[in-house]
TrEMBL record:
Zn(2+) binds at residues 251, 254, 353, 412. Pathway: Amino-acid biosynthesis; L-histidine biosynthesis; L-histidine from 5-phospho-alpha-D-ribose 1-diphosphate: step 9/9. Binds 1 zinc ion per subunit. This is Histidinol dehydrogenase. The keyword NAD applies. The lineage of its organism: Bacteria, Bacillati, Bacillota, Bacilli, Bacillales. InterPro entries: Ald_DH/histidinol_DH, Histidinol_DH_CS, Histidinol_DH_monofunct, Hstdl_DH. Catalyzes the sequential NAD-dependent oxidations of L-histidinol to L-histidinaldehyde and then to L-histidine. Gene3D superfamilies: 1.20.5.1300, Nitrogenase molybdenum iron protein domain. The active site is at residues 319-320. It comes from Fictibacillus terranigra. Pfam families: Histidinol_dh. Substrate binds at residues 229, 251, 254, 320, 353, 407, 412. Its EC number is 1.1.1.23.
């Protein structure tokens, strides 16, 4: 990894619009096919992109039962325990409707209502992601969403990974469909003969999935436009270089465009981490992917002080931030922009990915400046509740009418004044 004193984070700002014009045209064509042809398009496109001609889109109960048979019992128990941890965390986020009254008898409030239906996208391809099932489904279930469906691309045999099926079944998913890519997003947004449309689509995916989610936004809601994964580590000279190198590589192995960054006050640590990254790369099964990511989007930045380091972290606004300093909790209040913050040497980023309970669907590419991890609020909507009393309308009708006329809306003014006329005629 390169050790740099001059800070330039431009390479970390990776937009889905970069070199994606051809992909966008392809996505728009796929979405139109699904919209017009329904199931027929899904079968055709799955054959084209995933190399398998499916007989059924929906996963059968027998396939789910077989998944349990294929998985080691210990792994099933680990998935169950992780699901419990994730539910426990998200239950803390749940909010209640609220109301209050004023002395004039007016009642105001906010009604919090779960969405009716949600589609959870789970990536496939080079790896299986049962953790993405738990992270997408659990907050929706805690929020009270009645219908949760899951889509994920099948393998060449027309199957989904056993871990994905077990996690989905344990999470209480209503239906699982063996479709992926932009065509899956289209099916969830527009509906087909087999798949009923949903109100919101969540979950990470490749560039085609991200572009498709952006295209259907407005027809349905989406969680975010997720870019490549990223990690930043803020460290002083007390940190363990082997830990840091391992954690940097844990994100680099995701994707050749993943970003792994160390910000440190210690030149000695910087040199040790650079050597450790090279050393650990040698035995990494996904070495080719991680090596490209480290080469193109990896960096070690030397800063004069931890304050300078925190300023840089807030500028980067990383998806994952690890704080490996002598007193990490003392710095927490100064960190403004990060999707998830991991404090101390034992809080390796994969702890949050799989087991601690926090959500791993996080804002990327600097969007942690203004957005949050996937959470229970993402699966609810809110309605304002207004009940004006007779006294309140009598006291305030003229004020409301004056405000309406200030904006040139005479009918608005007359609507409230009509209440005064009715009262005067009694």
């Amino acid at each position: 990894m390169k050790i740099e004193r001059a800070v330039d984070i431009k390479t970390l700002k990776r937009s889905i619009d970069q070199d994606s014009e051809a992909q966008l045209l392809s996505v728009q064509d796929i979405l139109n096919q699904v919209k017009e042809q329904g199931d027929a398009a899904l079968f055709e496109l799955t054959g084209k992109f995933d190399g398998v001609m499916l007989e059924e889109l929906r996963v059968s109960p027998e396939e789910i039962q077989q998944a349990y048979q294929e998985m080691d019992d210990e792994l099933v128990e680990i998935i169950k325990e992780a699901a419990k941890n994730i539910e426990e965390y998200h239950v803390q986020q749940k909010k209640q409707s609220w109301f209050f009254t004023r002395p004039d008898g007016t009642m105001l409030g906010q009604k919090i209502i779960p969405l009716d239906s949600v589609g959870v996208y789970v990536p496939g391809g080079t790896a299986a992601y049962p953790s993405s099932v738990l992270m997408g489904v659990t907050p929706a279930k805690v929020a009270g969403v009645e219908r949760i469906v899951l889509v994920s691309p099948p393998d060449k045999n027309g199957k989904l990974p056993a871990g994905v099926l077990v996690a989905a079944n344990e999470s209480g998913v209503a239906a699982i469909f063996k479709i992926g890519g932009a065509q899956a997003i289209g099916a969830l947004a527009y509906g087909t003969e087999t798949i009923k449309s949903v109100d919101k689509i969540v979950g990470p995916g490749n560039l085609y999935v991200a572009l498709a989610k952006r295209e259907v936004f407005g027809t349905v809601d989406i969680d975010m436009i997720a870019g490549p994964s990223e990690i930043a580590v803020l460290a002083d000279g007390t940190a363990n270089p082997a830990y840091i190198a391992a954690d940097l590589l844990s994100q680099a192995e995701h994707d050749p465009r993943s970003a792994s960054v160390l910000v440190t006050t210690s030149e000695a640590l910087a040199e040790q981490v650079a050597k450790e990254v090279d050393k650990q790369l040698q035995t990494l099964p996904r070495r080719e992917i991680a090596e490209r990511a480290i080469r193109d989007y990896g960096a070690i930045y030397l800063v004069e002080s931890l304050k300078d380091g925190i300023d840089l972290i807030n500028e980067i606004a990383p998806e994952h931030l690890e704080v490996m300093t002598q007193n990490p909790t003392e710095l927490l209040g100064q960190i403004k922009h990060a999707g998830a913050i991991f404090l101390g040497p034992n809080s390796s980023e994969p702890v949050g990915d799989y087991f601690a309970g926090s959500n791993h669907v996080l804002p990327t590419s600097g969007t942690a400046r203004f957005s949050s991890p996937l959470n229970v609020d993402d699966f609810t909507k809110k309605s304002s509740v207004i009940m004006y009393s007779e006294r309140a309308i009598q006291d305030n009708a003229k004020k409301i009418a004056a405000f309406a006329r200030l904006e040139g809306l005479e009918a608005h003014a007359r609507a409230v004044e009509k209440r005064l006329e009715e009262k005067e005629d009694e």
